[in-house]
Amino acid sequence: MSTSSPSTIAILGTGSHAPGRVLTNDELSRQVDTSDEWIVTRTGIRERRIAGSDEPTSSLAADAARAALADAALQPADIDLLIVATCTADMPMPSTACLVQSALGIGEHAACVDLNAACTGFVYALEHAWALLATGRYRHALVIGAEKISSLLDWSDRTTCVLFGDGAGAVVLGPARRDNSGIVDVRLGAIPGTADLLAAPAGSPAGSPPRIVMKGREVFKFAVRGMEEVTRELLARNQLAPSDVAFVVPHQANLRIIHSLAQYLGLPAERLVVNLDRFGNTSAASIPIALDEARRSGRLTPGDLLLFVAFGAGLTYGGALVRW
Q1: For residue 113, what is the enclosing H or E element?
Q2: Does a cis peptide bond (omega within 30 degrees of 0) precede residue 315?
């Protein structure tokens, strides 16, 4: 697939935002039976950001979007498609995307919608935006992954509360501004019969909020399988080798899962973009936050081939090849 056509859709800008409240492992160990050593050894996480009661998902998303628009040198009026990937919407309706639209001052000409594929949400949203932009009926899309996962946590359950954090990341998509840049390919999927492995069912007793429950070992097994399979398929159908990938920007769930993927690809640690030690698992926000950090730190070079790969509740999985 060529990435040099004038109609190629590329990432024009990135942005991210995280709450100011930092919750360390040591602080958590005073709330629940755990320790910094226990958490770091099993996950690689050292701290995470927690949003306050005055910081809904839409607020996190809007702040990340403003940064992405500035990076792309575009105005809210330039956006005609807005997709927010989230499983922690402010409310069942309206969509978080419509709330972000109002916060940013995007006009009524824009299509606005939420998408829920849990931790794979950003990759799913990227595919949807890419497909819609390719029709020619939309020109610029704002794709946001935003989560307030802390609102779904049982803070007495050490198997889940230590894993997650809050935040948002965003990208602006539009016609490529230079040769050898653009989205190359995306592959999505979901594994039937695995919905009970990671879920936030309705609370009990009646009226209590949903809380995340997870069968960790089973999720780990399927996560490794799904991420490896989607990576193999993407590379094969684009006639690429793992050595062609400049950086892997994986979903930030567990350092052991990320290292397993790197070992499968035969890639050294310096070609992984990892920040879960500081943010934990921010679900749909994890890939765009990590991408924005990599871009702003100067790690990415024009023409670099990036691999985004994720898994999430469902169990969903997905991967994307993007030429920077």
Answers
A1: strand 111-115
A2: yes
Number of domains in the chain: 2
Give me the helix-helix angle, 216-237 and 255-265, nearest 10°.
Answer: 30
Question: Distance (Å, rounded) from C-alpha 132 to C-alpha 116?
Answer: 18
Query: Could you say which of 140, 175, 210 is where a domain stops?
Result: 175
Q: Over range 94-103, report the average pLDDT.
A: 98
CA 285 to chain centre: 4
Strand-pair partners of 13: 172
DSSP state of 172: E
Whether the predicted model's global pTM rises above the 0.90 cut: yes
DSSP SS3 for 273: coil
Between CA 312 and CA 50, with CA 247 as vertex, the angle to 5 degrees is 45
Q: In degrees rounded to 5, what are phi and psi of residue 262?
A: -65, -40
Active site residues: 119, 251, 281
The domain spanning residue 238 has which CATH number? 3.40.47.10
Q: Are the beta carbons of 61 and 100 closer than 8 angstroms? A: yes
Q: Kindly state the DSSP code that residue 189 receives in the 8-state scheme.
A: E
Query: Could you read off the pLDDT of 60-93 as tens digits, one per residue?
Result: 999 999 999 999 999 999 999 999 999 999 999 9
Residue 42: which domain range? Answer: 9-175
